Amino acid sequence: MAVPLLDLTPQHDVIMPELTRALEEVTRSGKFILGPYVEAFEQQLAAYCGVKHAIGVTSGTDALLVAMMAMGIGPGDEVITTPFTFFCTAGCVTRLGAKPVFVDINPRTYNIEVEDIPGAVTRATKAIIPVHLFGLSANMGPIMNIAQEHGLKVIEDAAQAIGARYEGQHVGSIGDCGTLSFYPSKNLAGLGDAGAVVTNDDDLADRIRRLRNHGTKDGWHYEDVGGNFRLSALQAAALSVKLPHLAGYIEKRRAHAERYGRHLEELPVGTPFEAPHRHHVFNQYTIRCHGKSREPLRSHLNARQIGNRIYYPVPLHRQPCYADLQYAKGSLPLAEEAADLVLSLPVFPEMTREQQDEVIAAIREFFAAD
Ligand SMILES: Cc1ncc(COP(=O)(O)O)c(C=O)c1O
Fold this sequence. Notes:
Blueprint: H1 9-29, H2 35-49, E1 53-57, H3 60-70, E2 78-81, H4 88-95, E3 99-102, E4 125-129, H5 140-150, E5 153-157, E6 165-166, E7 169-170, E8 177-181, E9 195-199, H6 202-211, H7 233-242, H8 246-264, E10 269-270, E11 278-279, E12 285-289, H9 294-303, H10 333-341, E13 342-345, H11 353-369
Parallel strand pairs: 2-3, 2-4, 4-5, 5-8
Antiparallel strand pairs: 1-9, 6-7, 6-11, 8-9, 10-12, 12-13
Helix pairs in contact: 1-7, 2-7, 3-4, 3-6, 8-11
Bound molecules: pyridoxal-5'-phosphate.
């Protein structure tokens, strides 16, 4: 039996009547740009994340970009982040003319190593972007302390982690702001590209609202130079239907992860670590292979049509576009090692027990023959 890495069809089948009704309502209303459907979703999202403001934008990438624009980050500034993340976390820093400064990761959580952050702070540092990778919160307590000590902003890249918690607090609500993605592979999956910024800061929210609409509030006066980063009303309506189901989706992901953990325990692979006081939402279930086993394991899974993917094969400090930053091979060894060893397995909520058994059996078979 083939098992896809992700299949949204069963999720959408369950809510199809609600979803089509919502999309039909927006279509009939003709209110496609901002307006009541976007506002309703923003209120619902803010309540879910436990923040005062949610601002819907076009994508998780634009959420990062517009948040940094609103903080005035630009040429001459440095932003500290992890090299083990999706490209845009650093790409947005570069697009604004600022410089990403990469800090190595913790090998168990795959998140930024907080002990290495103070050594990367310079007079030019303006912000830290911790990424809650794979659905596990970064170590936010120490990060907030470092930020406070040095007067830095904190933008939580929570693209993969909506619903995750750190000491009971929702990710995205701890730093100055959090950025979310509703790209279809994310836990709250849009019907295309969509994203949001969440924050408790009234002024920041105000600026982001302006900047996502070219820098204007009233449509005539442009206080800033912004862009078109507006969330589509059709996406907002679909996301409003899906948000009440998110807690259930997360519980299913966590149950799959727990079952993988039990069945893979005695095999020579590392399973995900749920650090204390953090609630993992398993956007990815990522194992860590030993030695040189990853490529043969991948080939074995591919031959059995078991979905799998490497997030991420090349850490950002080693990407060709960052050659000018001059990070030598081996300069951030733990991120480089993770890039060589990790492998993500299917963990979507609607994965059946039979599908998961197939994944587990294929991995067991690989190691039995080894
Ligand atoms: C960690 C991280 N940051 C940012 C993004 C960007 O989100 P989007 O694809 O919605 O632009 C993604 C997802 O693609 C991501 O995984």
